[in-house]
Design a protein that fits this description.
Metallo-beta-lactamase, Chain A, globular, zinc, 6-stranded mixed beta sheet, RibonucZ/Hydroxyglut_hydro, Glyoxylase-like metal-dependent hydrolase (Beta-lactamase superfamily II), metal-binding, alpha/beta, 208 residues, 29% strand
Length: 208
């Protein structure tokens, strides 16, 4: 069974997720956001097998360098956003100077691809390319737990007015990919509270 802890990090309250399997000393992190102090304290003594990125906007990668340097773990990102890690202009951190300084890190070690299966912490994660909020946005499914990044929120959807965003792609990602999962699938979004696929299909005003 996957053990999931969430941390609301940085000025945009981005959800970072710490995932552990049966071995509680080994973990995976999804989206280490800005101001990662609480996350860094929590992972003291843990072995981090990997950092998985749903996408590379600054608020989702703000703590990437600190975690990576502390734990020496590899990073996975979709190749459409590989350059975003190294380029503040692409990851959006130059657009809001009142919110963040320039964000940049070293390149990722591994690319992500549609349908890819990655075994970490004794669990299998399947990668789904879910563009719209950004061109390289992905979602990760592990059992009945779905990490949707900024594609789908509780009673909301990701914005599409940032560079590389596309509304038609977003709705296709939600209706054509995420809404095909069982209703009981638990959704862990990039911001805000968790939800389920069934709840969003029945209640989300943007895609109902």
């Amino acid at each position: 069974m996957l053990k999931i802890e969430s941390f609301s990090l940085g000025p945009l309250q981005t959800n970072a997720y710490l995932l552990r399997g049966e071995d509680e000393n080994r973990a995976v992190i999804i989206d280490p956001g800005s101001n990662p102090g609480p996350l860094l304290r929590r992972i003291e003594g843990l072995e981090i097998e990997a950092i998985l990125l749903t996408h590379a906007h600054f608020d989702h990668i703000g703590g990437l360098d600190e975690v990576r340097k502390l734990k020496g773990c590899p990073v996975y990102v979709h190749p459409l956003e590989s350059e975003w890690l190294t380029t503040p202009k692409l990851n959006g951190s130059l657009m809001w100077p009142n919110v963040t300084g320039p964000v940049a890190s070293d390149p990722a070690e591994f690319d992500l691809a549609q349908g890819q299966k990655i075994t970490l912490i004794g669990h299998e994660f399947t990668v789904y390319h879910t563009p719209g909020h950004s061109p390289g946005s992905v979602s990760f499914l592990c059992g009945s737990d779905l990490f949707s990044g900024d594609c789908l929120f509780k009673m909301g959807v990701g914005r599409t007015d940032l560079p590389g965003g596309r509304e038609a792609d977003l709705y296709n990602s939600i209706r054509g990919t995420l809404f095909r999962f069982p209703d009981e699938t638990k959704v862990y979004p990039g911001h805000g509270p968790k939800t389920t696929i069934g709840y969003e299909k029945a209640n989300n005003p943007y895609v109902s």
